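Subject: for your reference before the review

Hello V.,

The reviewers asked for a structural picture of the protein, and I figured it would be easier to keep everything in one thread rather than splitting it across files. Below is the amino acid sequence we used in the manuscript, unchanged from the supplementary table.
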Amino acid sequence: MKKIYSIFLILIIGFTLVGCSTGNSASSSGSNGAKASTSSGDIKLTYWYWADNTEYSNLMQDIIKEFNETNDKGITVVGEEYPWDGGGFSETLFTAAIGGGGPDVASFKLTSTPLFTANNLLANLDDFISDWEDKEDIDENIYGIMKEAGGSDSIYVMPWNTQVLYVYYRPSIFEEAGIEVPETYEEFLTAIERTTLDTNGDGKTDVYGFGMRGATGGHEPWGSFIHGRGGSFNNLNSEESIKGMQDFVNIYERGFVPPTATTDGFNEVISNFKSGKTAMTIHHTGSSAEMVETFGDDVSAFAFPKGDGQWTSMGDTENVIFESSQNKEAAFEWVAYLATGKGQELWTKATGNVPVSKRVQEMDHFQNDRFMQASIEGMSYAGIIPIRDTTTEWVSTIWPNTVASALLGDKSVEETMKILQEELYK
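And here is what came back from the structure prediction:
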């Protein structure tokens, strides 16, 4: 029971920069009134999903309708919307599935994979994907992430859409500092220093080079520094990981980030960037519209650059087929349509999430969006933190408290990384 509870808490934390909708009840017409598709067919599939708002709810029903009317295999998908409810969706899904009453297919978060696979609830997709004509349309790294989440060499989760962290920057500040967009990790560190500016000559910093997130959720951008030196989440005690941590401490101690960084969370780092207090910060396409609204053309993005290693955090919403489904081949037709077909186009264009389909990524809609471009560039090396029973506490408590102590000089970087390693893998 402890393990199940821990996994649910991990899901609630999930990708901490992403919000989800809430609600109280499920309905095949959608909890916010979207009418479900009821096209006739030889095979009927139930699909459980959540939607962040009424617009997305209606969109999903339109996608379902389009699939039902255009597939030539007699497949009818009936969409049933359930509220995300702070992660409660996954608990509802698990309870239904373990009791034999779950759907054929459902939207899914990677953080739930160990719980569901441990209970043999998910269909193995290896053979389906191996024989799938669109297999190569999805980056191999994405399949690797699906496998990593399940802790095996098999795939139980079908890719759908992602959110990939990148670096926001202000072109005008870069111009003032006389620098170009960094192409290497070392150049990135230099850019942080060079864009820390005293703009009025009063001896005080007016612009900090980087908006560091030291509060909960900061482990994701922090992970890029660790990997930049060749380290990894798998061995936080390694010499390379320690070097990455030292870089993180250095930019704080040298005054290249706001002094409040140890307690700055998502709202603070975004506010600092939008107010002009920082020249760079890390987030994803979910905030790009408000950045453009604030700065117009004076905001852009680049993928976190490569050093001895390279990594950025990926948030996700995927799909799964349940082992209990009597129509797995038809179910795969549906999840494939969402992954690389018309459903992928419609959903990602409307929601602003990053498509997993290379074909869709190459469409003008995405190619002409500088933030999407940074996201797509990062997809080949994006990843997730290890999904373990300890992850919830590590993310919410251990990481922010331990890293804050290192930034403030109360712990050495070696001691810090030893604690982080031991607490994640205990």
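For the response letter, the relevant points are probably these. Confidence is low (pLDDT under 50) at residues 1-40. The first strand starts at residue 43 and ends at 49.

Happy to draft the paragraph if you're swamped.

O.
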